[in-house]
Amino acid sequence: GKGSKDRMTALPHPALAAVRRWMKHRGGAPTDPLFVRISKGTLTSAPVGPHAVWEALMKRREAAGVAEFKPHDLRRTHITRHLRQGTAIGLVSTAVGHSDVRTTQEYDRARVDEMLAAMRAGNFPVTPGWED
Fold first, then answer.
1. Phi and psi dihedrals of 37, rounded to 5?
2. 2, 97 in Cβ contact below 8 A?
3. Which residues pair with 39 in a beta bridge?
4. Where are the beta strands (DSSP E) in the chain?
5. What pLDDT score was predicted for residue 131?
6. With bands split at pLDDT 50, 70 and 90, how would you rate the model's confidence at 104?
7. Which of 3, 14, 86, 132 is the 20 to 30 A CA-CA neighbour of 125?
């Protein structure tokens, strides 16, 4: 995690199954880096760095014709989706490694999107006499 802090998190069963399949294919010890570099078609033991992840995401983004985004946007989307489906903010905060739920709230795009939509639609209370 951030600041070289260890953090445990849970994976949905399909993701856990995929990780286990990958680890079997990757070989090595369970403590080896999860994602490793490929050199001349062969897996190495060297970990994939942040820039390689960014490059892979940008390549997939372009191929999919998706609007430009930053890798950290995936984290914001993940948090927002959990909050929209009703996952308790404390659980989301713990799962993503935030020590304060206010940080998690700042990642919640739904709040901003919903506020803007309400303002555009005029769906907000106005105190009588303040219309002028």
1. -75, 155
2. yes
3. 42
4. 36-39, 42-47
5. 56
6. very high
7. 86
